[in-house]
Amino acid sequence: MAALHIQNLKKAFGGLPAINDVSLKVEEGERRLIIGPNGAGKTTLFNLVTGDLGSDSGKIFLFDKEITKRATHRRVHLGLARTYQIITLFPQDTLEHNIALSLLGLSPQRWNAFGKQRLPKEAGSVLALVGLEHLAQRPVSEVAYGEKRRLEIAMALAQKPRVLLLDEPLAGLSREERGAVKQLIAKIPRETTVVMIEHDMDTALDMAETITVLHYGRVIVEGTRQQVVADPKTREVYLGH
Amino acid sequence: MKNAGWIVLLIILSLFPLVGGEYYINLTSQIFIFAVFAASINLLLGYGGLPTLGHAAYLGVAAYLSALCALKLGWGHFAAAPAALLGTTLMAAAFGLIALRATGLGFLMLTLALSQVLWGTALRWVAMTDGDNGLRGLARPFGLDDAKSFYYFSFVITVLAIAMMARFVSSPFGAALKGTRDQARRMSALGHDVWMVRWITFIYAGFWGGVSGLLFVYYHKYIHPVSLSLANSAEGLLAVIAGGSGTLAGPLVGAAIVMLLKNYVSAYVERWNMLLGFVFVVIVVFMPEGVVPGVRRLWRRYISRT
């Protein structure tokens, strides 16, 4: 069964096609890398999968369940989680509160309007998973960029997603921070299918089994690492720029 | 220790009628009523990030419904009050469906438009509302006609209302509400139903706006379309912003400022609205986050210096 199955997906912004007839099948447990130059439509594709944007046509399936028209939060309840290229956190709140909001998103407690809000027990262990437990009480605005990236990923992992979309998790990080985040991604359990966008080929190639190259909203090459690197179209897209 | 300030305030307010004159007792009752109104606006503005300019609708409709139940149907308060609150809450549910099509400025305009419809209706539907004359001949519940007993009545309801709203914002739901204020898109990506969170809050705020409306009509024994007007909504919004939106004490302080200016100062200065505007400008210039957070900030600076 495919974890994520996209059929003939299209999305245009004012006549300009951003995603032009993309079909994609990601198997359960797979590590998929999506690469492509700026403006290839990578983030738009993620936004269509999560429901942040509505598609013009085509279908999206999550574990054989069609989600094309479902609201974003409903897709999350089916096991979809994502991180953002531009860090999107709650900057005034503490790290543990950020994790708590993530855990709350899937808990029936989120409708409890009269009980006291308590920090879920898991919040600490989730932060420990990404090595941020010592910063639990700090507001997000006071921690370093690399730590915010790790918190982004931790918030997604806290939900134990079945499919995780990582949008440029390495962007803007220093070399040491890259190492830490890469290790973190490598540790994600196999029950979670990972689809990752990365702009920079070198840093991301060794993490993925299958690579999809997107260019002007179309899939131009797809295959294993060797196949994709050897394909002249990949070279054209990357070296031509 | 954290609640010490609140306990002191409660003690002072419960002893106040023993020393205060009738004029001041009535003035404080009016502050209570306005504080409940402002606090209900604060749920939307301060915790939900939804600026409403039509909240007088809930105050006014609850007041009118209660008055009409008494005058047209001859109902007692025990039937009229729940009916008025139910009607107001259902109206909030319906208005929420419309207003929450948008957020920000769009939301503001929609809430304004909806409340203006009601204001116009109250003014023009003379057969029902007696238009510009307002509805008179109303009675307070339990025969609370003297200042002191009404003071305690409104005091108890105000404490209950504020406590219920405080509970709401410190609940898991309240945490989600604040999340939708700060990062709505992120909240949906975490599985939160942002629209539903806002709608429930809208209804809850409408309910407490209705409670303030009941207290309002009980106090005045009279209701006029001006209670549904933009001016009334704006005064409530002003109180929240001046006091400090998104804080529990902010709307209470803001309500006190507006009511003191309106009632006390207007006895000496004719254009009290001008003075209110001036005070508001001063607050915004020196404490843009509102009086309560502003004073807290100054106090912290003072402590750290000594």
Overview of the molecule:
The complex is a heterodimer of chains A (241) and B (306). Chain A is α/β, with parallel strands linked by helices. Chain A is 33% helix and 26% strand. Chain A has a 6-stranded mixed β-sheet with strand order 6-7-8-3-9-10, sandwiched between helices. Chain A has a 4-stranded antiparallel β-sheet with strand order 2-1-4-5, covered by helices on one side. Chain A starts with a strand and ends with a helix. Chain B has 306 residues and is mainly α. Chain B has one domain (16-305): ABC transporter involved in vitamin B12 uptake, BtuC, CATH 1.10.3470. The A-B interface holds A 50-52, 71-73, 76-77, 81-82, 84, 88-93, 97, 100-102, 104-107, 109-117, 155, 159 and B 167-168, 170-176, 179, 182-183, 185-194, 200, 204.
Short description:
Chain A is an alpha/beta fold and 241 residues long. Chain A has 2 domains: 150 residues, 3-Layer(aba) Sandwich (Rossmann fold); 69 residues, no CATH class.
List the helices and strands and how they pair.
The complex is a heterodimer of chains A (241) and B (306).
Chain A: E1 2-13, E2 16-27, E3 31-35, H1 42-50, E4 57-62, E5 65-66, H2 72-77, E6 80-82, H3 95-106, H4 122-129, H5 145-158, E7 163-167, H6 175-186, E8 193-197, H7 201-204, E9 210-215, E10 218-224, H8 225-230, H9 232-239
Parallel strand pairs in A: 3-8, 3-9, 6-7, 7-8
Antiparallel strand pairs in A: 1-2, 1-4, 4-5, 9-10
Helix pairs in contact in A: 3-4, 3-5, 4-5, 5-6
Chain B: H1 4-19, H2 22-47, H3 56-71, H4 77-99, H5 104-124, H6 126-129, H7 147-169, H8 172-182, H9 184-189, H10 194-220, H11 230-243, H12 250-264, H13 272-286, H14 291-305
Helix pairs in contact in B: 2-7, 2-10, 2-11, 2-12, 3-4, 3-10, 4-10, 8-10, 11-12
